[in-house]
Every structure is written in C-alpha cells, then in structure tokens.
Design goal:
- The longest helix is centred in the C-terminal third of the chain and has 31 residues.
- The protein contains five helices and no strands.
- Helices cover 78% and strands 0% of the residues.
- The protein has a single domain, classed as Ferritin, core subunit, four-helix bundle (Ferritin), CATH 1.20.1260.
- The radius of gyration is 17 Å and the shape is elongated.
- The protein binds fe (ii) ion (2 copies).
- One fe (ii) ion binds next to helix 1 and helix 2.
C-alpha cells in the first residue's frame, strides 16, 4: 500500500509526464508546418508518445499498489517557437526539470522506506539519463550548425537516427 505522501508525489509525476507529452506534441505540430522540418516533427511526435507511455506506467503502478492514479487536466503548452534552437533549448530544460523531479521522488521513497516504489523508479532514473543525453547532443549539434542551411538539412534528415541510436540497448 502506498503512503499518502508517496501517492500524491506519484500523481504529481503523472501530471508532469502528461505535460511533457503535451509540450512535445505542440513542438511536433509547430515543426510540422515549418518548411523542411519533417524529421524534427516526427521526432517530437514520437517523444510525445513516449511521454504518454511514461504517464501510463505510473498510473498503472499507483493503482497496482492500492492507490488511485489520477488523470490530470490538460493545460495548453507553448505552441509557437521563435526558432528551432529555441525548441531544443526548451526540450533540454524540460528534461532537466523532469530528472530533478524523479530524483526528489527517489529520495522520498527512501525516506518513507518504500522500497517497491524506489525500485519502480529506477527505470525512470535510467530513462532520464538517456533523455538528457539526447537533448544535450541535439543542442550541441544545432550550436555547431548555426545558420548553415545544409547543416540544418542534414540535422533534420538524421534526427530520427540519433533518437534510435540513443534508445538502442535500452528496454521500454
Ligand atoms: Fe518522461
Ligand atoms: Fe522525457
């Protein structure tokens, strides 16, 4: 059985994953209507789906442990962006925020001596290492590319491969 504190914290994380899914969906839709950003758009559609899976995993876990996984309300995320660079900066900043939240949860699980939740959260700990690494790599690439059009063309063409490389060897 989950303690009230842990249950509330897990429900807050459910909300955060839902918000991530919404934020990335908005990035996908924005990129979808920009010329030449099909790859980036596809990338964020996939990221959005993945965040929904993270949310579902949490809902099922909370329910399995005798709690109630609360489906959060939808807030409109940021829907337009000044530049591609801005999108990826937001992506990294968001993932860093999620990592901090997961770390706080892990800490709380230990304090409450909830070892089952502590164990469950390890999957999210590894996931955040990968997500942050991917976001950092993409930001570095964009930094190098700058305003170079052919560089941007290749970035968009290859972005789904970077994503696959990153998730290779990682189980979902
Ligand atoms: Fe996530
Ligand atoms: Fe993520």
């Amino acid at each position: 059985m989950l303690s009230k504190t842990i249950q509330e914290a897990l429900n807050a994380q459910i909300r955060m994953e839902a918000e991530s899914s919404q934020a990335y969906l908005a990035m996908a839709s924005w990129a979808d209507i920009q010329p030449g950003l099909q790859g980036v758009s596809e990338f964020f559609y996939k990221q959005s789906d993945e965040e929904r899976v993270h949310m579902l995993k949490l809902i099922r876990y909370v329910n399995e442990r005798g709690g109630f996984g609360v489906v959060p309300p939808l807030l409109q995320p940021i829907i337009t962006f000044q530049s591609l660079k801005r999108v990826f900066e937001e992506f990294l900043a968001h993932e860093i925020k999620v990592s901090e939240s997961i770390n706080d949860l892990v800490h709380m699980a230990l304090q409450e001596k909830d070892y089952a939740t502590h164990n469950f959260l390890q999957w999210y700990v590894s996931e955040q290492i990968e997500e942050e690494r991917l976001a950092r790599t993409l930001n570095e690439k964009l930094e190098l590319i700058g305003e170079d059009k052919s560089g941007l063309y290749l970035f968009d063409r290859d972005i789904l491969n970077y994503r696959m490389q990153q998730s290779a060897g990682k189980s979902h």
